[in-house]
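Q: Can I see a sequence and its folded structure?
A: Here is a first one.
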Amino acid sequence: NKTFSPQEMRGKVWVLNFWGTWCVACREEHPLLLEYSKTGAVPLLGVDYKDDRAAAMQMLEEEGNPYTLTVSDPDGRVSIDYGVYGAPESYLIDRDGVIRFKQIGPITQDVWQKEILPRAKQLNQ
């Protein structure tokens, strides 16, 4: 019953990840997101995209939760505002709420190391 607004993240650099339990690529990406979240390099927030909330919460409980916060977008309205076409999609967002990088498809080790981390580091300076 809690709501979230991106305004709450103002002043922080963060990653917004759209995912779903029905999404095979999201399930493949999940263990890497768990790894990334343990580093504390950049907060990961999740949007459970066009999914059953109970199934999503069960998956996170069973497989681990990489997200600082997970919100539900059962009808895809929030996702439309971000231009999401499918899952997974992720956005690196700066302190002012501006999207600085968009990853269509899973965040791989390569994308994490060569795109997201260097950009996040630069945005945090």
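Q: Show me another, different protein.
A: A second, unrelated one:
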Amino acid sequence: AQALQAGLWPNPSLGTETEDLSTEDPIGDFTGSEQMVQVSQPIELWGRPGKRRDVAEEERDLAGWDYEAARLDVVSQTTQAFVGLVAAEQRVQLARELVHLSEEVFQTVSRQVETGEVRPVEKQRARVPLSQARIRLRRAEEARAAGRKTLSGQWGRSDTTTFREVEGTFGPVRPVPSLDSVKAALGRNPALARQQDELEQARAVVSLEKSDRLPVPAVTVGWQRFGGRTGSDRTALKAGVSLPLPLWDRNQGAVQRARFRLERARRRREAARVRLDTTLSKAYRSLVSAQNEAQTIAEETLPAAQSAFESVRQGYRQGKFDYLEVLDAQRTLFGVRRQQIQALSRYYQARVRVERLVATPLEQLQ
């Protein structure tokens, strides 16, 4: 709408005059006076309307990039909230498994105490990790509730009654494209694209201010009726042209200001490029780090911890290991599983941040 308005020509002016009114006759007596009606139209030459429209269209493009940035922010924040809630759901599930396993160990130790296989103090020692597992479960459930509230807030709901749980799993870690291919897509970032349009708008303003140095002529066309007091009751057409003289005000200050703003737009674009390049490099390093950590845990750490725990638990039932070794193996296993959830959450969160910076899914950059 602003671009439409900027491209319109100025409206003509309609004027009328009455001369030689009689001071003796009533004011309403115009029969002996002279009347004139004229229309004046400013003529904007040198492409002024088009240059104003160019400036307004650049502002429209800037508003479009602001909208795109806001849209990407909503998508990115919602995705991160979803990933965080999936991680919270998995932590709750892991905490429940730990409680269940701790209860099994506690019951086993209790039976061994009753049969006299172990000392009664072992039962009290087994109660401690069970209590800690229940505390961890309550904390995980509280974190999940907070994550649900954060996610529901993304679509404007302060409550979480619209859903009970989210369905999602952390699948296999996908490969990350090279840093060069990711940086090549940085130009799609709305902030950087906006800086380029700001530069184009500044150029358009300079061109407009230069055209405003030139005067705007006005063409006048009218009709005049000569009064009867002159003895010649007749009519005539009249025409004229007026042209402002640019003697002192040649719009020189506005032109200089527009040039300074053009230079500022160039510097801002350079600064935005450096800032986004640095931010992207950091986000990419975090993504690669999380990817490597998640892969190492899945391929090496977790299988080893799982195998060790199963061996120790089986040996404990056969009397080969004591309770402390079982507890240590259990603590190690669940610590690794929590670490895996954290690493996968970091990986997907970092992936979202990189995709937000380049405004492109990483699958398209492979």
